[in-house]
Amino acid sequence: MTINLVFFILLHVSTISAFYLPGLAPNVFCRTPTPDSKCKTQVEVFVNRLDSVESILPYEYSYFDFCSVVNESSPVENLGQVLFGERIRPSPYKFNFLETIDCKLVCKKTFTSTDAKQQKFLKRLMKGMIFNYQQHWIIDNMPVTLCYRNSEGTEFCSRGFPIGCYVTKRGQSKESCNIRDGKNDTFYVFNHLDFEISYHSGEGETWGTAFGENGGRIIAAKVQVSSLDSQTCERNAASIRFQSTTTNGIEIPFTYSVNFKRNDEIRWSSRWDYILNSLPETRIHWFSILNSLVIVLLLTGMIAMILVRTLHKDITRYNRIMDRVSEEESLEEFGWKLVHGDVFRPPKRGMLLAVLVGNGVQLVIMSLITLLFACFGFLSPSSRGALMTCAIVCYVLLGTPAGYTSARFYRMFGGKNWKKNVWMTAIVCPGAIFSIFLILNIVLWANGSSAAIPFTTFLALLALWFCVSTPLVFLGVYCGFKNKPTEHPVRTNQIPRQVPDPTTYIGVFPSIILGGMLPFGCIFMQLFFILNSIWAHQYYYFFGFLFVVYIILILTCSETTILLCYFHLCAEDYHWWWRSFLTSGSTAVYFFLYSIYYFVSKLKISEGTSTFLYFGYTLMITFILFLFTGTIGFLACFWFVRKIYSIIKVD
């Protein structure tokens, strides 16, 4: 039954993985506007940041001194776009709908050795080709894709296209370099673009009655790049090439052509499918994942079954002893019942533990809400930056649950300094993340990267933190201290019980390290695709499957922590508070180790700055995952301990 349920869920996820953003109105284009139609005649091309899989540093379009416009307003980016370094700007590449352009000169760039500014841009251009920087352009909210067929005959569409090609001194070049007979130590600039705009005709459609076949909706924007030393786009012209030692007399004419192609088989609502389905790296082998999920579910089911059966026998035996045997005989028993007078003894550094749990609850709820929005299609790839924006807004608005949870546990531990509890909950964890982010932002700013957030955005983040999140944390702490403290099912002895020496396999360090293996095992396969979306600049849209993994991660963290907690209580070790948090929180350690493996084996980063940025961002994600998984394990163990000690009979 469980296997059938999981299989049904995965089938459902696979059918909705490319679900489109609801409520987004399509743009209608036409050759000649009519009074009855609200259509556009001009197709605008926007440029975005340039990035590379060989560098963490993205750059704005103007960084390389390409053809640009100065007197046109730019679209307003949301918070998520700004944090990811996206800078969408208008471009001089403009054309009318259904108007074929054979060749058009946009601008001409000249580099001379006497102009220091031109030499600076020339060096940037060389660096961009060495690191294979990709341009990201946008037409009608669609990425301009570079499509080609691989050796297997399958079409592969990349959402970016290279600015040029560099043939090394050894004659090696990138896969995207389509230069024949390239010379060693030579740069080739892709200065000519051939646009192919596919559209769904309005003929026979209710929305196209005003213009018919003379209008439609854009469903794809593809481009082919070439290096042509010609202002008239002569196909037999020589390539634009120069060597690394060349610094004078370099002229680059930027040209383009446009061709429109009618395609009524694809509707506007499915226009993203050809991009998402053509990425070989993101094709998940469903049967392999199904087997992994079944193994995880069976393993967690076995843990739960063993735990329930063992506990049932223990509780029955202990209650029978209390009913039939004298108190002296009951004291001869060993196990978790003997520590009932110490199991709820407040831990050391209870304030810090309460703060970590409070911030973890904030992250758990935030991730749940964000995933639900993503599963329903509100955070699709067409809505750039929406995922990060939604996550930040949810996190800021969930300060009240964080403060309430922190206050309840802090007061249960006997704490009374509510003011300190407010400030620590609001500042410690967000401050640690913000400090790392600030250091990384300084590095980005020093390198002129577009990922460096502007000063105004920096102030906006501080305002969200101190003017919105902190007051909500105060409200949560106030409500938590106002309510009565949580009462434990058993009383705590005044004198602490001595803890026996633990055996090797249930020692503190081994149990914490082993506790994160199973939760990591259920997410490591999905981590590859998530890391690809971050560092390889690929789309991630398997949110339905990610939600299933999210639930399995919660169950696995809970059951693993409960099982290890039970073993320690049976060994008469009642120091479970911090251990339960660190046991499931050790999943983050495995994530960090996997990130090192991913960096070494999958990425081609050699720059020191990019390496520093990679591990800086990885450290931030590791800390967030530590809070998330640690909180899940702690809350599950807290519920378990209260449950078992509320059932047994204690005098």
TrEMBL record:
<keyword id="KW-0812">Transmembrane</keyword>
<feature type="transmembrane region" description="Helical">
    <location>
        <begin position="286"/>
        <end position="308"/>
    </location>
</feature>
<dbReference type="Pfam" id="PF02990">
    <property type="entry name" value="EMP70"/>
</dbReference>
<keyword id="KW-0732">Signal</keyword>
<feature type="transmembrane region" description="Helical">
    <location>
        <begin position="458"/>
        <end position="481"/>
    </location>
</feature>
<protein>
    <recommendedName>
        <fullName>Transmembrane 9 superfamily member</fullName>
    </recommendedName>
</protein>
<keyword id="KW-0472">Membrane</keyword>
<feature type="transmembrane region" description="Helical">
    <location>
        <begin position="581"/>
        <end position="600"/>
    </location>
</feature>
<feature type="transmembrane region" description="Helical">
    <location>
        <begin position="422"/>
        <end position="446"/>
    </location>
</feature>
<dbReference type="GO" id="GO:0005737">
    <property type="term" value="C:cytoplasm"/>
</dbReference>
<feature type="transmembrane region" description="Helical">
    <location>
        <begin position="502"/>
        <end position="529"/>
    </location>
</feature>
<feature type="signal peptide">
    <location>
        <begin position="1"/>
        <end position="18"/>
    </location>
</feature>
<feature type="transmembrane region" description="Helical">
    <location>
        <begin position="385"/>
        <end position="410"/>
    </location>
</feature>
<dbReference type="GO" id="GO:0016020">
    <property type="term" value="C:membrane"/>
</dbReference>
<dbReference type="InterPro" id="IPR004240">
    <property type="entry name" value="EMP70"/>
</dbReference>
<feature type="transmembrane region" description="Helical">
    <location>
        <begin position="352"/>
        <end position="379"/>
    </location>
</feature>
<feature type="transmembrane region" description="Helical">
    <location>
        <begin position="612"/>
        <end position="641"/>
    </location>
</feature>
<dbReference type="GO" id="GO:0072657">
    <property type="term" value="P:protein localization to membrane"/>
</dbReference>
<comment type="similarity">
    <text>Belongs to the nonaspanin (TM9SF) (TC 9.A.2) family.</text>
</comment>
<keyword id="KW-1133">Transmembrane helix</keyword>
<feature type="transmembrane region" description="Helical">
    <location>
        <begin position="541"/>
        <end position="569"/>
    </location>
</feature>
